[in-house]
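cron nightly-structures :: item 1 of 1
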Amino acid sequence: MRPKRSNDPVKAAHELFLEIIGESPRQLPEPQDESPSAAAKRQGAAEGGRKRAAALPPEKRREIATRAAKVRWKKEG
């Protein structure tokens, strides 16, 4: 994960220089929330999506997927 650069151009240039020469401070990824409630939310979200997909007829799933693909790949302009 690449660290965010500063909005100050001088500081950003210095950070980039340190990164290039290999002397930048090591950035550890932010730890995920491992609380029981966070784990339950992740599990519930994944479970809910699977249950919804199983309940939908194939035609409706195809329609939803087509719409999502059109939005995802929509050209700007």
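cron nightly-structures :: done
Residues 36-55 form the longest helix (20 residues).
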